[in-house]
Amino acid sequence: MHIKTFFAALAASALCACQPAQPAATPHVEDAWARSTAPGQSMAAIYMTVTNEGETPVRLVAVSSDVAGKASMHQTLVENGIARMHPIDKGLAIEPGDYATFQPNGDHVMLEGLKRQLTPGETITLTLRFADGASVEAPVAIVEAGSR
Amino acid sequence: MRTLRLALWGLLGIGAAVFAFLLATRDPAPAPQVVTFDDTDVQASLGGRFTLTGADGQPFDSASLQGTPYALFFGFTHCPDVCPTTLARLVKLRRDLGDDAAFAIVFVTVDPERDGPEEVGKYAELFDTPIIGLTGSREQIETVKKQYGVFGEKVGEDPDTYNVEHTASVFLIGKDGKFVATIAPEEGREAALAKLKRIVG
Q1: What is the pLDDT of residues B24-40, one digit of tens each?
Q2: Is the pLDDT of residue B19 over 80?
Q3: Span B154-168, average pLDDT
Q4: B115 at the A interface (CB within 8 A)?
Q5: Among B152, B185, B168, B183, CA closest to B37
Q6: Which residues in chain A have Cβ-Cβ distances shorter than 8 Å to B78?
Q7: Residues B84/B167, Cβ–Cβ less than 8 Å
């Protein structure tokens, strides 16, 4: 082996070695909350901030909660005074050091087919799944509907 | 060369004329009605007395609100984001004015198929402050929607999970029962409070 090739291979293996060995920092969920629901109400929205504290971009691809038959990410858009909802079906990319905000009248997690009423003071769990296979369980505070 | 140039200019002219003709004759897209609160003509033509059904299942005549200013919002109880956000906002604005009787909050469903008196009643109670929840027959709801230029249309086929796209603004009605202004979702707290003071004062 030529000495040049040897060093190139060494450099390449060093690069390869440090990348997968570094465990990806798990994205961090803060201030996750939802409004309480009326009896029989089938839908709710969860709001939160998801921060990517890692060194590489992450993509939030799916959400789920055991209180709802289905959970998905949606964006509310008010166009010409009319509120419409668009699914965020390609996931949501978050750059390193950046965060994604889910807030009223904006991006939100939509819970469909609620299995029970959400009451103020309780905490439910939202599971977030990322494109790299990582998943995060976040506690979601249920607040009095008129309080926030 | 000169003839060729003339011919090309001619072709361009014809092209432009055809384009202009197509533009002028194409079907206009159905434009959703947008309420502008500064337009006095719109102001005069919007609103009016209506009869719907209250949470108790009894007829609700808007004349019963005579003397009480109110904020009127059209939505539906299975609405996850915009409706509870708007009602919570009105509740907070009313608290900011320091009096839960400053104005009434009236919620009218645009989804009478799923929202009967019981549903609108329970939904109104959710906010822990007086809110008047109203429903009605399809015809009654359509009439009130027309009175306020409100858009509301089902999206999706599933009878349980369909969404209703609808007007997101709140209508402010004075003590005399007349429409005064709208509050759009994107308007800030100060702007909203200033408008509310116009009906509350």
Answers
A1: 544 444 444 444 455 56
A2: no
A3: 92
A4: no
A5: B183
A6: 41-43
A7: no
The ipTM of this complex is 0.83
Q: Judge: A84–B165 Cβ closer than 8 Å, yes or no.
A: yes
Name the most confidently modeled range: A18-27, A51-60, B155-164.
A51-60
Helix axes B82-96, B189-200, angle to 10 degrees: 60
Integer Cα distance of A52 and A36 in angstroms: 28
- Output the 3-class SS for chain B: CHHHHHHHHHHHHHHHHHHHHHHHHCCCCCCCCCCCCCCHHHHHHCCCCCEEEECCCCEEEHHHHCCCCEEEEEECCCCCCHHHHHHHHHHHHHHHCCCCCCCEEEEEECCCCCCCHHHHHHHHHCCCCCCEEEECCHHHHHHHHHHCCCCEEEECCCCCCCEEEEECCEEEECCCCCEEEEECCCCCHHHHHHHHHHHHC
Nearest to A146 among B31, B122, B128 (CB): B128
Which residue is associated with the tokens 């609620």? A114
Contact A72, B179 (CB under 8 A): no
User: Mean pLDDT for chain A?
Assistant: 89
Instruction: Tell me the mean pLDDT in the region A23-33.
Output: 85
Cβ distance of B81 and A144 shorter than 8 Å: no
* Side-chain-facing half-sphere of B124: CA atoms under 13 Å: 25
Total count of residues recorded for chain B: 201
Per-residue DSSP letters for A24-79? Answer: PPPPEEEEEEEE---TT---EEEEEEEE--SSS-EEEEEEE-TTEEEEEEEEEEEE
Question: What is the pLDDT averaged over residues B37-62?
Answer: 85
Nearest-by-Cβ selection for B81 from A42, A76, A144 = A76
Query: What is the pLDDT at residue B6?
Result: 56
Q: Does B126 contact A at CB distance below 8 Å?
A: yes
Residue B25: Cβ within 10 Å count: 7
